[in-house]
Amino acid sequence: MRRLPPLAAVRVFEAAARHGNYTRAAEELGMTQAAVSYQMKLLEERLGVALFARSGRGIALTEVGQRIAPQLTGAFDAMGKAFASIHAETESVISITAPRTLATNWLASRLGSFQLARPDLAVRLHVGDEMIDLLAGEADIALRGAPGPMPGHCCHFLMRMPVTPMASPAFLAKHPPVRTPQDLLELPRLTYRDDWWDLWFAAALGEAPDTSQMPGLRFDSQILDGNAAIAGHGFAILSPPLWQPAIDAGQLVQPLPQVAHYRNAFWLMYAESKRNQPKIRAFRDWLLAEVKLSLRDDRWGAGVPPEA
To answer: What PANTHER family does the entry give (predicted)?
Structure first.
């Protein structure tokens, strides 16, 4: 265990020794000259030796003071370099975490424009549905699905999660026309036990049908469901804003107008302590503008906050 004197007093001694003057040390440290004198008195009493001696109207280092002053200056320089390197890395890298579907289908194709706008920032994107502890510094920013803002975080609403059944034109051409929600009960549905299906059927029919014994393909990701639907394997329950390129390309079709909204919405989150970091503000402003642009034709109501 290190036995160190109070670091505040050590810092005062190092500055006074470097300047050879209490007044200049006080100016550097933002203290009064009286406070510098007091800290020096505390340090000398703690050490049991004098570090400065009066020399005319000024001060001079004693032999002990001369011996330790260069070592302390070197130690403070080393600490300054260590913290400067951390600051440089903190300001030059932004780490983002986002769930799989949002990251893959929405964010990845847009990040290039942020990189062009901020070429000084290296972007690290972590893709995963697990929760990351932003308060512990595991990432700078999280895009997450949540019912509402999280305590201790700065949270900005991005979009809701509207859900509706979608299928490929090829699949629809091979099966009877889908005109009502009941028609879907007779057709292959992907990941049929997904609670999004229950949510949608409850909104469309007033109650969710029992499909516990229904056979079919089951996946653990909306990414897999959507791509299986594009391949013509059945209806998938998807959030259309995350599949806009496939919809625009005619790979996915929404045959029924009914839309339900999942209880969670997507939020941009970061620790309160990082609210004033330039890189955080830059990414926040860019992302909110991108969301607004992507929802300009918001026929699914994704841009309406849950409380509205």
So the answer is: GLYCINE CLEAVAGE SYSTEM TRANSCRIPTIONAL ACTIVATOR, HTH-TYPE TRANSCRIPTIONAL REGULATOR
Tens-place pLDDT, residues 59-72: 888 988 889 888 88
Quick check: 1 pLDDT over 70?
no
184/104 Cα distance (integer angstroms): 28
Contact 141, 266 (CB under 8 A): no
Query: For the chain, how far is it from start to end, CA to CA, in angstroms?
Result: 57
CATH number at residue 125: 3.40.190.290
Is the same domain home to 254 and 199? yes
- Domain of 300? 99-308
Gap between the Cα atoms of 101 and 127, Å rounded: 9
Identity (one letter) of the amino acid at 56?
Answer: G
Same domain, 16 and 113: no
35 and 117 fall within a common domain: no
Helix (H) or strand (E) holding 260: strand 260-271
Please list the alpha-helical segments (H only) found in the chain: 7-19, 22-29, 33-47, 63-92, 100-101, 111-117, 169-174, 195-205, 222-230, 244-248, 278-294
Tell me how many degrees the CA angle 189-195-197 measures, rounded to the nearest 5. 35
CB atoms within 10 A of CB 60: 12
DSSP classification of residue 149: P
Q: End of a domain among 87, 117, 148?
A: 87
- 136-186 pLDDT tens trace: 888 999 999 999 888 889 999 999 999 999 999 999 999 999 999 999 988
- Is residue 2 situated within a structural domain? no
